[in-house]
Each structure stands twice: as C-alpha cells, then as structure tokens.
Design goal:
- The strands form 8 sheets. Strands 1, 2, 3, 4, 9, 14, 23, 24 and 25 form a 9-stranded mixed beta sheet that branches. Strands 16-17-21-20 form a 4-stranded antiparallel beta sheet. Strands 5-6 form a two-stranded antiparallel sheet.
- It is α+β, with helices and mostly antiparallel strands.
- The longest helix is centred in the middle third of the chain and has 23 residues.
- 27% of the residues lie in helices and 20% in strands.
- The chain contains 16 helices and 25 strands.
- A hairpin with a 5-residue loop joins strand 18 and strand 19.
- The N terminus is likely disordered.
- The protein is globular.
Amino acid sequence: MVPRPLPSARTVTAVAAALAAVGALTATVTTPASAHARTDARHVLLLSIDGLHQSDLAWYIAGHPRSALARLTTGGVEYTHARTTVPSDSFPGMVGQVTGGNPGTTGVYYDDTYTSGLLPAGTTACAGAKRGAEVDLTEDLDKDKNSLDAGQGLSGLPGSILKMTGDARGLIDPSKLPVDPKTCKPVYPHSYLKVNSVFDVARKAGLRTAWSDKHLAYEILNGPSGTGIQDLFAPEINSQAIGYASGSDWTKDNAATEQYDGYKVQAVLNEIDGFDHSRTHKVGTPAVFGMNFQSVSTAQKLPTSDGLTGGYQTKGVPGPLLAKNLAFVDEEVGAFLTELHKRHLDGSTTVILSAKHGQSPTDPKALTRIDDGPLLDGLNAAWKAAHPGAGDLVAHAVDDDAMLIWLTDRSKAATDFAKAYLLARSGKGNGIGGEDKPFTASGLEKLYAGAAAARYFHVRPGDSRVPDLVGITQYGVVYTGGKGKIAEHGGAHADDLAVPLIVSGAAAPHGARVDDTVETTQIAPTILRLLGLNPQALDAVRIEHTRALPTR
C-alpha cells in the first residue's frame, strides 16, 4: 500500500455545515481541498490502543510522517481533543465506546467494583441473605486464570491459542459471579450492564459481529441480550506468560505483551479475510469488529523491560521502550490497512482508532507512589475505635491513580468520617528513582463523599453501584505498594483522559481535523450511523443524548 503524501489543509465551512445538517456535533473542522464524498461503510473496525494519548500519536506521526498511523490520520477525521470516561479504567472506557454511556448510565465504574444490590459470589441460600457484593470483571472469573486459554484445556499453547473458543461465557466460572437476590442465580457480566451495545443493535439488524480483548469478562460487551458478539476471542492476559519467567504474566514483560497482542492481531486479520477468529470457518467479514492493544500500556507502566527504560523521558516525550512499542502498534495497524486493501475492503470499511484510557503521569518527575493499604487499614481502625463493636467501614476499594471506596455504612455520618480521616493523612511515598516523597491529604486533590459522589456521576444518592467516596488524586500520585509501576490510569487528570480519536476510511473525508472537545462515548452512535443504523436504538444514547461524531 503506497503511502499518500500529506495534503495541505484549508478550512471548508461547507463541511462544518454538513455536520450540523446530519445532526452531528457542531465543530470547527479543517479538511484538505481534495476531500470528497465517500460511500457508506459496510464494516467498522474499532481499535483501542490502551494507554495511548493524543500527544503520543502526534509525537509519533511527527517523526514518522509516512507511517501507517499517519496514513490513517490523513485518510479521515482526527479529533484532537477527545476525552475518555471518568473513571478512566478499561471497563468503563470500553463500555462507553460501544454503548454511548458514562458509568452513571451503564452501571460499570471499574473492572473491580461493588454493589449493595447483589449477593456475594457463592451464595446459595438467598432468602434473607445480606446484600453487598464485589463485582469482579478481571481474570478471577476464569475457570483457570493461570492459563492463556482461561481453562479450555488446549494443548500446544501458546501457539494453539487461536483455537480458543469464541464463546467466552462458557469459560467463566459461575461460582465466582455475584448472585441476583431475586432469582438466586449468578449474574454474568452482560447481565450486569444496564444498557445495550452496538453489538446488540448490529445483531438485531442481522449483521455479523466479533471482538477480541484481554479477559473473558469482556463478554459484558454483548449487552443485556448476551448474544451481541458472535465471536469473542479473549485470551487471558494475566495468565502465566509461556516462555517467560515463572510467575510472570503477559503484562510483566513488554515483549510478552507484544506477543500477546500479536495473537489478537492475527484473529482480526482472519476476520478481515472473512473467517472466524480461528480461521476455521468462512463466515464473512464482520460489520462491527476489532480489538484492544495492551502493549503501549505496559510500555508506559513498566520501569524497564527488554533492556529499555519505560515511560517518558521528560514530560510528554516517550522513552525508548514506549517509542519502540509505538512502532510495533504502527506496524500492526499497517497490517490491517494492507489486508483491507488486499481484500478490496478499504473502500467499504471505516477504521476507528482510540483508547479506553490514557496513563498518568507523563511527567516522570511528578510520580509519587503511595501505598494505599495503610490508609485503608487506618480508616477501618479509626472507625472501629470511634464505634466500639463496629466492623470495618471499607467494604471495597480500588485505587490506581484515583480512589474509589464503597462503605459498609452509607450514612452521611460515615461518609463524612471517612472523608475527614483521609484528608488528614500525610506521610511518605516514593518517586521515580525510589527516593522519599512526602504526601498530604492521602495524595488527594479533591474527595467527593456521599451525595456529592453520587452527583459527580449524575446518579441519585444511595444508588446501589456508585462509590461512596471518589478521590481525585494530586497529579503524579499512583497508589501501589511497591516500585514496579511508574504510571497508572483510572483518574481524571488530562493524562488519564486525553486519548486519540480517528475515524478514517469509508464515509469519512480525507485529512479533516476537529479541534473541539468530543468524548469517546460518541463512538457508539457513530458506528451505527456509519452502518446505516439508527443511533437512537442505543439505550445510553437516548438517556444521555449522546451525539454521533462529526464525520462528514
């Protein structure tokens, strides 16, 4: 595929007017004089490059103007101020892209959360049982979380992994799922999602769907029907990485992560060629399909790997490991573009590239690692000292570069107590070189508690899923007990939220740019519009009035 020369751009007001005419977001758009009308898409290939920032993309393209990522960008619309969801975690981020909703609407706040509306996993005597359950959407749901095939029992792993089933739900251990108090049955991830997905809508329209991701729990993207994705390829990323150090999963070595991503790339290439992910059955190229890349994320988070320094050299400037990995992703994206052209699908396929989340901090000097364990233990101890006979106050917590806490007592007195305690804590964390770094207010810049936390997510106070405390960290804070991470996601800083967003190929003008703020939740209605389906068929679109991205 011969790279096209980069065009010079000029403002075309007629394009902006056309965007408003089709009901898309009104925006300032620049587009080259060569832009022309495109045919409607018959296929949408969605790619999530987890951890990738818009600034990373711009940096790479500036140094590689004839790269696949550059060609993808100039072959469509680039949204330079796209934001992902808050919390900026993989699950709310990906769910937002395919539903059009934020966590308050979808009910999905993180990959490991809590609800007061369900019973704990393993409950069998449901009548009168006390409600309150962890909702774990991680590798813990697998029948065998230490195996790349999640317990299917394939021989010849990892080379045989493409033979893994496309019915991910069959490999989930139901005993690890929370229980519905009304039916006394396990709640699968797709049933936990409150709204439908683009996969749901596409299937009902008779279109083929496929997806590839890092855990079986991504069967949540099926939507409440449970049947939205016909072919879900989900090799377990947190399993033992075969051929690498014992006890290491595929995220602990960036070369291993690239190898892992390569399996999903091959699955998508097979689907472009009209096969299922295993290349066993000829089923036709899906209308909606794609994958996530995990390797950029590990290159940002690992201090070192493969003899290269991870993260950023200075603020916003990728270090050698991340630079190497951006080149890897570029090569894989190029493979997709080449295969689409080879199969004469480039004229009928729209590629959408974004990220579930960013990563923070991109300034290594700002890093302050804080062990959150003593903070939570101290809160529980203080609560029990003030309330003799009481149990722990913290029911569940998840802290990466944000702090989400669910309490056993959801009263105003309890949430106020927890807020006051955490904001009064100071101590010492450690910096990028392991040096001591003092912190105040538990590393928090702002802490929403009780009704304020509910309002932050636009839900009513007392909602069964919303955290009781939502902490926005001081820039650079990462909650971790060791020194093995130099960045994380989940928070609400620009480094967490500012992700790339490109809509390129069929039905998109060449070389256009939108500089207004858009959200990754707008991807979902955009996918349906590109395929000629009604975005209003999405529950979250109707609830949040999510508008399709301007694409023409």
